Amino acid sequence: MINTGENLWAWVAEEKDGSISTIAVHDPQYGGWLPLIARSEEAVREMGKEAVIHGLTHGLKIWMRKYQLVEEIGR
Question: What digits encode the pLDDT tens for the residues 7-56?
Fold first, then answer.
């Protein structure tokens, strides 16, 4: 199946103030911050261990979220 980019999967966290943010982890091999976001659900599920560690380290509730295309701007 061709991925047209209309779905985006991400690990998210509920911050202390109640806002929802995407999770990124620092990866020295990658050379910086790596957001736990991808167009592939399977790829994001494989990032779950890092997301759980982030949640435990910062005391945050974490989960995986699916974003779907709502509107395209400038295409």
Answer: 999 999 999 999 999 999 998 888 899 999 999 999 999 999 999 999 99
Range of 16's domain? 7-68
CA quadruple 45, 68, 21, 65: dihedral positive or negative?
negative
37 in a domain, yes or no? yes
Q: How many domains does the chain have?
A: 1
- Average pLDDT of 51-72? 93
Q: Specify if 73 maps to a domain.
A: no
